[in-house]
User: Fold these one by one.
Assistant:
Number 1:
Amino acid sequence: MKAFKVEILVVDHDELGPEGIKRIIEVTKYPNWCLSPHVKDIEERDIGEWTDEHPLNRAPECEEEYRRLFKEGNKS
C-alpha cells in the first residue's frame, strides 16, 4: 500500500471554509472504500468575486492564476 500527498484546488462556492472542505473530503464514501483521505493541511486564499470570467474558471488562465495565488510566501 502506498500513501500519497495530494494537492487540490477547491473553489468554495458554498462557503464551507477550510474545516467544511476537510470534513467533506474525509467523510465522503468512495466506491469500494478505495480511498481513505485525511487532510493534513489546507492553505486559504481570497479569490474575490466569482464570475464566469474568473481566471480559475478559464482553462487558459487557470494554471497561472493558481501559481500566482499559492506561490511560496504569498498568504494574501
Note: The longest helix spans residues 59-70.
Number 2:
Amino acid sequence: MSSWFEKCMPRIKDIKPNISTILDSFKKEANIKSLYIWGSYAQNINKPNFRVKDIDIIAKTNFDIGDLLAIDEQIIKNKYSDDYLEDQGYNPNVIKFSKSFINLKKCNIDCWAISSNRKLLHWGPLLSKKSYSESIIKKAEQHAIEITGYSKNNINYISEMNRKNWYNSYCNYINDFFEDMPTGWYKTEDIKIKEIIRQAIKI
C-alpha cells in the first residue's frame, strides 16, 4: 500500500497521524526553533476528508534574508566545502538548512521560511504579491477543470486516476508559467507574518 504522501491530494486524515514525525525529524536536523503548518491544511484541520494539493510548512529562522535569497538549486546540488562557500559569499548553514528542508518536498511539502528580519520566503518561483499568486492558482484550477471536466469540489468523489489527471493538469499550468525562473528562495511582498502565525499550527 502506498504511503500517504504518495497519494494524489491526500486527505487531512491521511496526513495528520504522520506529519509530526516527519517535521520533528527535520526540526532537529536543521536546528529550527519554530515550525508551522499553514494554508489549506491548517484552515481545514477539522475536516478529515478535505484533500490538500500540498502541505505548507514555514520554518522560522535566524538567517539573513540576503543569505537565503543567494541560495538556488545549483549551489545546493554541488558539494563544495564550507571554506569555499564562505569565500564565495555564501552562508554554509543556510545551504545545509535549505537542502534539508527541500528534501521534504518528496512528502508533498511546500517550503516557506521566515528570515531574521521577518520576511516570508518561498522555495521555488512565485509572484511576489499574494493577489497575483492567487490569480495564477485560480487559472491553474480552471485549466485543470477544462482538461479533465472535474471541478475542485468533485475531487473527493472521483477515482485516483482522474484525481491525478486533475492534479497533473493543475501543476503543468503552474510549471509552464514559471518555467523560465530559476529554483531558489523567493521573497513575498505583502503577506503579514503576524497574520500567518495567528492562523498557523505550531509544530
Note: The beta strands are 34-38, 55-60, 109-114, 120-123, 185-187, 201-202.
Number 3:
Amino acid sequence: MLPDRSKRYAGVDGDIPRLHLTNLWQLVVIALLVLTLLVVIFPRRRLVDSLYEQQNLDELTRSYIQNLYRVEPDNADVALLLARSQGKTLNLSAFEANLLKLVAQGTQRQQQEATQILFDVYSQRLASAKMEKERLDLSSRLVMLLLQSSYLRLPETMVQAFAAKSFELDLPELGLRYLQQVSHSKPLQALEDYGDRALARGDYAVAASYFLMARDGAVTVVEARRLFEKGIQTYLADSLNQPAMQAARDHLGDLASDLPTLRFLVRSAAAAGDPVLAADYAHRLVFHTEAGVPP
C-alpha cells in the first residue's frame, strides 16, 4: 500500500514543487486587456474629463494615465494629467516646453491647468532650493510665468495666489495688475499690508514703494496724506534721503496744496539734508497760507 501523497513526496522526491499559475508576460497581457476594457466601457473623452475633476489621484489612476500617455503622447489633456500626477517629481525638461505652449495656445481649461501645474512646481522647488544659481533660475522662470499669465482669464483663487507671489517677488506693479482683475478699485489695504510685511523684513525701499502705490489710489485727502507720509518716512528711516525726496516729488500729486503735507515736507527735506528743497516747500507753505488756504 502506498504511503500518503504528502509523505511520499517529502520522503522520496524531496520538496513539493510549487505550481505556477501565471508568469510575467501573462500578467502584462491581462493588464493590457483590462485597460482595453476600460477604454471600451468608458469613453476616453468622458474619462479624461472625470480625471480632471479629481484633486487626488490614486496609484491605479496614475498608472492608467501613464499608459494612456504612452498610447497618445500628443494628447494635451492626457499630458496635463500626467504632469499633475507627477508634480513633485516632474521632469521640467520633459514637460515644461509643452506646458508653456499650452499656457500660450491651449484652450481656457488647458491654459489654467498648465499654469497652475507650473506655478506649483516652480514655487515648491524655489522654496526648497539650496544653491543660489538654482534659486535665480527658478525665480526667473516663475517671473516669466507670472508675466505671461497676467493676461489670461484665471479663477479668482489663482489670481489672488499669483498676486501674493508677485508681491513676494518684489513685483508690486504685477501684483497690482492681478488684484485689479478681481477688484475695480486699487486694493489699498492689500498694498499697505504687503508694505508692512516688507518693512518687518527690513526691506525699507520696497515697503515705501507699496505705501506710495497705495497713496496714489487713495480717495480721501486724509488717507492720501497718511500713506504719503508713511512712504516718505519709511525711506528716511533707512537714510534713503535722495530716493525719499524724489518719491515725494513723484507722488505729491493733489497734496501739493495740502498745508499739513507741506509742513511735513519742510521737516522731511531738512531731515534729508536738503535745505534748498526745505526752503522751497516752506515758500509754498507761506504762499498758500497768504492766499487764504485754510490750515
Note: The two ends are 126 Å apart (CA to CA).
Number 4:
Amino acid sequence: MKKKIINIAAASCMVAMQGVAFAGDTTLSVAAPASRFYTPEIRSYVLASNADTVAAGQQRELATAPAKAEFEAPLWTASNAHKYMGLGTLLLVAATALAPKPEECETGTCPAERDTSGPHQTLGRAAASMAAATVVSGLVVHWNDVHVADGFSDPDNQHAMLGTAGALLMLAAVSKAPGGGHAGAGMLGGIVMGAAVKITW
C-alpha cells in the first residue's frame, strides 16, 4: 500500500512538472534566427531582371570599356622587304642614269687599263644586283600568288613577269658595258621594273 502511494505521488509530480514545462512554450517561429551580421538593408538575390535594366547595364559597360587599339601591321615583314628592295632598285637605276658616264666602246674593244670603278659603273652593278635580289625575294615570298593558269591578265602575274624582264635587261646591260648600246638596255630594264612596281603599288 505504501508503494502504491509513492508511485501515485511520483506520477502526480511528473504530470505537474510536464505542465510547468509546456506552460513556457510559445508558438513555433519560422523566422530566420537573429544574427549580428544581419541588417535590414541586405537585399535578396535577383533571379530575373527586366530587359530594359539589362540593356542599360550593357550600354554602361560599353561606355566605360576602353577603346581597342586598331591593328597595325608590322613595319618589317618579308613582303615589305621585297617591296623596299624593289623601290631601292628604282633609286639605284635613277642614280646610275644621273652619274657621270665614261665613253662607250663603240667597237667593242676597250683598252685593258680602262677604269671600271667609277660611280656609274658601281651604281649600275648595284642596281642590277638589287634587281636580281628583288626578283628572287619576290618568288620566295609571293610564290603562291603567281598562277600560270590565270594568264597575263592577272596583276600578280604581270608584276612577276615585268619584274623578271626588267632585272634581266639590267643584268644584260651590266654584262655588255662598256660596249655600245648597254645604256638603252639598262634604261629599258629600269622602266620595265618601274611598271612592275606600279602594278601592285
Note: Helices lie at 2-23, 51-64, 78-98, 119-141, 155-176, 182-199.
